[in-house]
Design brief:
single chain; 322 residues; alpha/beta; D-Maltodextrin-Binding Protein, domain 2; 2 domains; 10-stranded mixed β-sheet; 11 helices; 10 strands; globular; Bug_dom1; Tripartite tricarboxylate transporter substrate binding protein; BUG; signal
């Protein structure tokens, strides 16, 4: 019987099953790169998960912010790091999907340079309008845009951001036009939207839901596949008649390509458990995030789908950055 148990355990290791453990890993602190400044969604995700992750694996996880070049500096640092499991990164939809098609001379390749561990969290955008703008529904916005070609201004946190590309995709889906107004961050875009200097925007739900509840912005639709619990009266875009436009902003974890499979599995399992830790999940949900915590295979397939999707949108709109 003991021989049979040993054989089963060995088979699990060979097949990459639950018995897989990287011998001695981790035996020193692990660096967790965040390719943005402190305080953003990726940074919050990293700092929310590290306490549970450290407890699970018995080592310190050190968050290191490496901002710049729309996350390319931090991503390049990960791509060039030693693939031993001691350097990982929390990145965004831009880092892992949009940048691949957006930049002409990107110094890393999201589809070739990384091994994906888990998609951590996601949250939808919400289409909001200035209170002074004379539309209250998606149908009214589309009608106004078609009646006044090129007049609707779409604020965004920057060219190539998920809110910018959501607006581009929306115009493609509705065969309408508008003017993109990129800002250096979502805060400035929201401020001008509240002030009426711009008309509409696809903003992250967590960033604008308080403004919506306070009557400072009008919510026209949610980009998720279901209505938001905090805004139950706001329809999804599908309910508003716009098909094939489910959009989420998201964050995920990755290590450099070549990291040993046993380490990948161990980190992924620990991350999934840490994300589902009641305290971690409560913190993230309180900030408007939905925890995903999927497998490396699921995240890799999702990432590839996102790359293809946004590449199509970007190429159709002829958007290219150096």
């Amino acid at each position: 019987m003991n021989k049979l148990i040993c054989a089963i355990a060995a088979g699990a290791v060979l097949l990459g099953g639950p018995a897989v453990q990287a011998a001695g890993y981790p035996d020193k602190p692990v660096t967790m790169i965040v390719p943005f400044v402190p305080g953003g969604s990726s940074d919050i995700t990293a700092r929310s998960v590290t306490p549970a992750l450290s407890k699970l694996l018995g080592q310190t996880f050190v968050v290191e912010n490496k901002p710049g070049a729309n996350s390319a500096i931090g991503a390049q640092a990960l791509a060039r790091s030693t693939p031993d499991g001691y350097t990982m990164m929390v990145g965004s939809i831009g880092t892992f999907a949009i940048n691949e098609a957006l930049y002409k001379n990107l110094n890393y390749n999201p589809s070739k340079d990384f091994t994906y561990l888990t998609q951590a969290v996601r949250n939808p955008n919400v289409l909001v309008a200035a209170t002074s703008f004379p539309v209250t529904t998606v149908a009214e916005l589309v009608a106004y845009a078609k009646k006044n070609p090129g007049s609707v201004s779409y604020a965004s946190s920057g060219t190539g951001s998920s809110d910018h590309l959501s607006a581009v995709l929306f115009r493609q889906r509705t065969d309408s036009t508008g003017v993109d107004v990129p800002y250096k961050g979502g805060g400035a875009a929201i401020a001008d939207l509240i002030g009426g200097q711009v008309n509409v925007s696809f903003q992250n739900l967590g960033a604008v839901q308080n403004h919506i509840k306070a009557g400072k912005l009008k919510a026209l639709a949610i980009t998720g596949d279901t209505r938001a619990a905090d805004l139950p009266n706001v329809p999804t875009l599908a309910e508003a008649g716009i098909k094939d436009m489910v959009v989420y902003s998201w964050q995920g974890f990755a290590v450099p390509k070549g990291t040993p499979p046993a380490v990948v599995q161990q980190l992924s399992k620990a991350l999934q458990t840490a994300l589902r830790d009641p305290k971690t999940e409560q913190t993230l949900q309180g900030l408007g995030f939905e925890v995903v915590a999927n497998t490396p295979q699921q995240f890799t397939e999702f990432q590839q789908g996102e790359v293809k999707r946004w590449k199509d949108v970007i190429q159709k709109a002829n958007i290219q950055l150096e």
